[in-house]
Each structure stands twice: as structure tokens, then as C-alpha cells.
Amino acid sequence: MTARYRFALAVAAASLLGGGCATQQSAVRVRPWERSVLADEMMDPGRDPLGGAMLEHVYFSREASSGGRGVGGSGCGCN
Amino acid sequence: MVTLRRILALAAALSLCRAAPAQVALGDPFPALPSAGLSGSLPDTSGKVVLVDFWASWCAPCKASFPAYSRIQADYAAKGLVIVAVSVDDSPAAFAAFVTKMRPGFATVHDGSHKLVAQVQVPTMPTSYLIDRTGKVRFMHAGFRGSETEREIRKELDQLLAAGGSP
User: Fold this and answer.
1) Other C-beta atoms within 10 Å of A55: how many?
2) DSSP state at residue A32
3) Are strands B137-142 and B107-110 parallel, antiparallel or unpaired?
4) Taking all residues of chain B, what is their mean pLDDT, rounded to a whole number?
5) With contacts defined as CB-CB under 8 Å, which chain B residues touch A15?
6) In chain A, what residues touch B4 (CB-CB under 8 Å)?
7) What is the pLDDT of residues B103-154, one digit of tens each?
8) ipTM exceeding 0.90?
9) What is the pTM of this model?
10) C-alpha gyration radius of chain B
11) pLDDT of residue B13
């Protein structure tokens, strides 16, 4: 690695640490006061027990992934 | 050489980006409410101890905090306390419906543009700030935990209001 590359990498690292990191964090992070949509009942995946049970059955019988939703043991994909 | 230029261009772009503002911390002066672009009528806070509470209609602990703040306002208003509850609801209708339903005994204003809350950078919802008579943040409560938080705020208010100054 030449001295010029080392210098460029050092400048990039300094930018990331000095301001870029904070900017990237603020760009992707949903702030506490912006969570109105997330607080909506529609965003709760467990709001419909019947729908959840049907989805569980699909995972179990079609996707061969029994256990992937919190059930212990391995799945054979039977049924 | 191309890679070198790319690295330098990335570094330049990142350094130009604006960093997120810092949270308002204990001891900091709280931003001036009259110039914060809030909608609703602000009470006179000059020379008073002010409790600024950030809330939203979709936030369950905020709803639980309103009766407590009404009690606190009733008990401490004569001693020089003013409570200003700042809604961060996106919708003015949601803000108005919540206030109509809860009928709080303190001032409520709407920060629809999120200008003030972004300046303060609240860590969670709700968050309240106790501001002394000189405008500095003396205590902060992130979240509301029922009677425990109410008891702490009353203790802090006793301390702040005993510090002197006319109500």
C-alpha cells in the first residue's frame, strides 16, 4: 500500500468518525417522535390470532420450517 | 488512481454531510418556546419554573402521564410552576382530539413540524424537562412510570421552587 492510499484511507476514516457516522445513524434511525406509524395496531404481527395460526400451519406443512417461529426441535416438513 | 479518487470523493461527501444535533442535557439552556414555531397558545413562562413535556396521542405512557401532570399543575401553579405539554403528533386532528378527550389542566401546544423536538432530541416518548427560573434544564425524565415519576417530579419541584425568585 502506497503512502497516498494510506493518506486517503486515513482521511476517509476521519470523515466517518467525525461526522459521517452520526449522519448515517440519523439517516437510518427512526427517532422516538417519528414512531406514530410503528405504534399503529396494523404494525403488530400478532394482532390476528387466527391469521397467525394459519401462517404457522403454512410454515409447518409447506415450508418445512417447523420450529422457525419459536417452536423447539427440528421440523420435517410433514403434513 | 481511480480507487484513490473514489476514496477521496467518499470522504469529501461524508464530511459535507451535517451531523445530527446533540441532545439537550442537564445544565443546558432550553430552546426558547416562543420562537419554536409551536401552534397553540403559550402561557407566560418568564421567571417561572417550567415543565416541558413531549407527548403524542399514539403514546400510551403519555396518556397515563396527563392526569398526573394535571394534579401537579394544580398543586404547584401558585408557587410558580407552568407546565407546557408539546405534542409531536403528525396530524393536528389527532392532537386536537386527544386534548379534547383528556381535558388537561395545563397548556398544550403542537409541534407539527417537529422543529422543537428535533432541536431537543428527546431520547424516548414521553420525555419531560424541568427548567429553572433562569431557563436551564435542571432535571429530565425519559419515559413515565406512574406514581414513581410523579413522586420524583414533586420532589424536584420542591427543590426548584424553594430556590427563590418571585412566582
Assistant:
1) 13
2) G
3) unpaired
4) 89
5) 10-12, 14-15
6) 4-5, 8
7) 999 999 999 999 999 999 999 999 999 999 999 999 999 999 999 999 999 9
8) no
9) 0.73
10) 19
11) 54
